[in-house]
């Protein structure tokens, strides 16, 4: 088994708001967890801790439970992790604030029988079959929101964790029911990869290759190699910038099963 991961901040003067972890539990199998903390607009968000604190708390809980509680499905693990993280700052922070710290989520867990997955919001999961075919598992609700709407802070807030909008892991455990989940027989998966949108933009914004080619870069050059390619494109003055941020926190993890 091979696991390779990397995470690079978009701005070295700001904390990285992503979380990436891998675990190989003593009971066998493995777990990958990738979070992309949502950078809030300037202004009040009701929390004294901030997004990096939230991502670390939520990511740590997801990793621990996914590895130790094989009896719990991933949506229940997400719900419990959100609940526990909320309890850790309920007494000090306003968790009802629409911009309370939140994150996208990808969790992958495998054993001898199945590969399970959970995706919430715009991070990407890739599953490669033994024959080389690559399937992208996406939660595309944010992509359905028109760009002109997302340029408005007020309009975006109205759609955040709301019907007809998009969903992220924040303070309400019920959001776990909104995640894209599934499982695949272990024999039908050769490799998996998870990317935050700062890394997936190599394919979904810059169009440098399709998802199979993206996975090929990860296999040959590793997670840092893919991120390095993204940074080179972002720094090219001849290329139009990516939406919202020229450089975003970028994280990737690749595992050959």
Fold and architecture overview:
- With 257 residues, this protein is an alpha+beta fold.
- Helix content is 30%, strand content 25%.
- The chain contains 6 helices and 10 strands; from the N terminus they run βββααββββααββααβ.
- The strands form 2 sheets. The chain has a 5-stranded antiparallel sheet. The chain has a 5-stranded antiparallel sheet with strand order 2-3-4-5-8, with helices on one face.
- Strand 6 and strand 7 form a beta hairpin.
- It is globular, with a radius of gyration of 17 Å.
- The chain starts with a strand and ends with a strand.
- The model has no long low-confidence stretch (mean pLDDT 95).
Task: Write a brief caption for the model.
The chain is α+β, with helices and mostly antiparallel strands. The protein is built from 6 helices and 10 strands; from the N terminus they run E-E-E-H-H-E-E-E-E-H-H-E-E-H-H-E.
Structural topology:
Layout: E1 2-8, E2 18-23, E3 30-37, H1 51-68, H2 74-89, E4 103-110, E5 114-120, E6 124-128, E7 134-137, H3 147-150, H4 153-159, E8 180-185, E9 191-195, H5 197-204, H6 211-234, E10 250-256
Antiparallel strand pairs: 1-10, 2-3, 3-4, 4-5, 5-8, 6-7, 6-9, 9-10
Helix pairs in contact: 1-2, 5-6
